[in-house]
Amino acid sequence: MFYLKGKIDTNKLIYFMFSLPALLLYSFFYIYSVICGIYYSMTDWNGIDISYNIIGLDNFRRLLTDERFWNSLSITVYYAAALVVIVISAALAMALILDSLVRFKTFFKSIFFFPAMLSSVTVALIWDQLFFRAIPVIGKGLGIGLLSQSPLASTKTALNAVILVNSWQAIALPIVIFVAGLQTIPKEIYEASSIDGANSFQRFRYITLPYLIPTLTVNFVLTLKSGLTVFDYVYAMTNGGPAKATEIISVLIYKHGFQEMRFALANAEAVILFIIIATLSYIQIKISGKGGVISE
Amino acid sequence: MIKEKTIWKLLGKMVMIFGIVLTLGPMYIMIITAFKPLPEAAKSFFALPSAFYIGNFVELFSRNKFWNYAANSLMISTISMTIVVFFVPTVSYAIARNFNNRYYRFLYYYILLGLFVPFQIIMLPLVKQMTKLNLLNRQGLILLYVSFSLIRGVFLFVGYIRAIPRDIEEAAYIDGCNVFSTYTRIIVHLIKPMIATLMIIDILWFWNDFMLPLLLLNKSSDYWTLPLFQYNFKTQYSFNYPMSFTAYFMSMVPIVIIYCFLQKYIITGISAGAVKS
Q1: Distance between CA B196 and CA B198 in Å, rounded?
Q2: Is A33 in contact with B126 (Cβ distance < 8 A)?
Q3: Which of A51, A74, A114, A31 is nearest to B263 (CA)?
Q4: Is the pLDDT of residue B142 over 90?
Q5: What is the reported pLDDT for A276?
Q6: Considering the domain boundaries, does residue A58 fall inside one?
Q7: Does A47 touch chain B (CB under 8 A)?
């Protein structure tokens, strides 16, 4: 490969040396793990014993009727859907307000972006304390029974409480992306439309929204993926409890794999999540070429 | 017309203020509580501290291995960062300039496969593999950060480098430069903005990451990073929450300082990185 008329082509060799460490590290630590994960999902290994059997697709068949897995999957889907709705609508509203500001636009933008700088565990733990210390005080003060204890302690409110905390941080980046998207809209169109007598809602519906579609797609996919694969917030705040009310798929995989000796089954669950995420990514790539008034 | 506009503006301002209170409120509570002794915090949760109490900080620094964890976080982040900065642009350069070669094109799509894979699928086998290799330690974590940062890094850099015209490089070849010297003398300077973006994205990831340290370093408290310490601190100090808030506050300080000075670059860097991938 590197020999050209009997003499070494130095440039080709340098290019190859540039690429070699990446190829090795990535194959060894990433691709190899993915293949192992798929392989383990077809065994009955508990993660500790030396020997195990290959059992084909039995784990997947078992998952089809596994109540805990379905519960977990439906919680995860709810979590991701709620996160998308809250984050996208709130971020869009904030971005529209920010965009309409004349002064302090950058300053307020940096305040809203700040949560994105923090570790998700820090955010989770701070809110955990706030829920535990502040909510009961407020609840008693207002006489609302539902708020008399930490919302994380009740099966009814725990999941939504975690979603809100996640939204608090997840909204930061979409706001900034939306503001950037709004700035690409030519101002003349708004002027022309107000001469034509369009009201604010019509302006939003027929000018802003079509221009925002590429940005909307980005934020939608980002938030959806982060919702489906979320781990840190739930693990740090509730660890799946109370009574499995917040046991999203990542936490279930973690528990099965490391704590309950159902290593192979956990891998099968991960493979199913993999299929869901890969399909979403594929659709995203297909869509991102089309739609919207502008494409970058 | 005028009435409608003023109503919208007023509503917008109210939502805006609400948003700011919601964003900064938790930070406010965290900071004031860090400066209160436990009895005072229990009595008046929302009020400013009556005196400038630093007992929580004294205790955090003396009784725990706080500086040890901070050093771990700093060491892991900076070493991984340094390797990534040398490593990701060079492989991306090789791919970008040999895109008609089958091997490099394969390598590109091979690395991009990672964009489709959720972390959960490698989580379990990875721990088994790292245990076998005796890499459940800080060195192992750095190796993983370097390997995993390739996915987004190569994606961002290959596109960026391919947009740079080749004329300058060809001139350099004529002047007798080889690929390596062309890279170090010319390309590095042209890709500086992208290097800055990658540094911002990755250093935040390394500093704030919880998942990988949890999997690799949780066994021995000597190895803990700050996020791992905060998590384990929760169980240890759940009753003494001014202490917890002090710990959260302290691990945030470096980020706040950096953010104050570089917010413009950080915001554009992170959002550009997110939009592209």
Answers
A1: 5
A2: yes
A3: A114
A4: yes
A5: 92
A6: no
A7: yes
Q: In B, residues 73-132, which contact A (CB 8 Å cutoff)?
A: 87-88, 90-91, 93-95, 97-98, 104, 107, 110-111, 113-129
User: H helices then E strands: how many in chain A?
Assistant: 14, 2
pLDDT in tens, A247-262: 999 999 999 999 888 8
Nearest Cα to B89, choosing from B166, B160, B168, B178?
A: B160
In DSSP notation, B3-51 reads HHHHHHHHHHHHHHHHHHHHHHHHHHHHHHHHTS-HHHHHH-SSSPPSS
Classify residue A9 by burial, with Cβ atoms within 10 Å: 0-12, 13-18, 19+: middle
Please answer whether residues B94 and A16 qualify as being in contact, where contact means their C-beta atoms are separated by less than 8 angstroms.
Answer: yes
**pLDDT at res. A288:** 64
Nearest chain B residue to A24 by CA distance is B147
Residues of B in contact with A16 (CB under 8 A): 94
Domain count, chain A: 2
Range of the domain at A16: 3-40
- Which CATH number does B62-276 carry? 1.10.3720.10
ipTM above 0.85, yes or no: yes
Domain boundaries, chain B: 2-53, 62-276
Q: Are A216 and B105 in contact (CB under 8 A)?
A: no
CA-based R_g, chain B, Å: 24
A70 and A125 together in one domain: yes
Distance CA B138, CA A88 (A): 38
* CA separation for the pair B229, A72 (Å, rounded): 28
Q: pLDDT tens, A22-77? A: 999 999 999 999 999 999 999 988 888 888 888 888 889 988 888 999 999 999 99
Among residues A180, A169, A201, A99, which one has the least CA distance to residue B16? A99
List pLDDT tens digits, range B119-133. Answer: 999 999 999 999 999
Q: What is the dihedral of CA B33, B37, B38, B43, to 10 degrees?
A: -70
Supply A218's token pair.
């980005």
Q: Which amino acid is at A55?
A: I
Residue A281 lies in a domain: yes
Asked, as a colleague might, if the bond just before B49 is cis with ω within 30 of 0, I would say no
For A16, name the nearest residue in chain B, comparing CA atoms only: B94
